[in-house]
Amino acid sequence: MTGFSAAWLALREPADHAARDPGLTAALAGALAERDGLRVVDLGCGAGSNLRALAPHLPLEQHWCLVDHDPALLGAARAALADWADAAEAAGEALRLRRGDRRITVAFRRHDLAVGLGGLLDDERPDLVTAAALFDLVSEEWIERAARAVAASGSVFHTVLTYDGEEEWTPPHPADAALHAAFLAHQTRDKGFGPAAGPAASEALERAFRALGYRTRHAESPWRFGAGPLLAALAEGKAAAAAETGMVAPKVAQAWAEARRAPETRAVIGHIDLLALPGA
């Protein structure tokens, strides 16, 4: 599976949190408001950003299981959550956190998501299965299997920041179209779960959950930002991915990335948030 560094995840966290659709977050909170001792499984948790964004909107007593294949990211999540909390204490392998009036117990589970979710969800019995910036990396077949596992558990499902392929970079650059076409081709490469769904992931998720009797809602959640470290890192990553495809010359890709360091550069990067609720 494709991995991400804790430094990259920390750099993007403010933009991720700002991009989330507040209406969908409110709908999720309303659907779970009556749950007592809410149980949450966070897939591909990285350094815990999804918990930090969602926990303030969920019931007062929460039990999270953070799932990632990378032990270094699970360690980074533990450290970042302890810093984020008003109070934190170890509870065996777990953490007990207090943040405002929320009491949050966090377990950390190393698990290769490529093998599936069935056993994981059977063990954890979640009320909510959630993820951030994950599903564009997996295949449509994996999405269908994951949806069946979530439905079998009867859980609410919520995912945010699934890349939708829409980007606007300003001012225009002569290589924009070629870079973007190459990047989209790279997005569908195998990231460890079969050919990635890439920008088709949100539609595949919604289709899969509706077929299982879920009610779904989606909303746009684009990144919007100007010149700075995040935009520079994003441009470098996009240029490198585009060059890997062979569809653009490396020198063209690098020139594009360097141009995007200009102080007048702006970018809008499209994402979709999705909420799926069981029942008619």
UniProtKB/TrEMBL annotation:
Gene3D superfamilies: Vaccinia Virus protein VP39. InterPro entries: SAM-dependent_MTases_sf (IPR029063). This is Methyltransferase domain-containing protein. It comes from Methylobacterium isbiliense. The lineage of its organism: Bacteria, Pseudomonadati, Pseudomonadota, Alphaproteobacteria, Hyphomicrobiales.
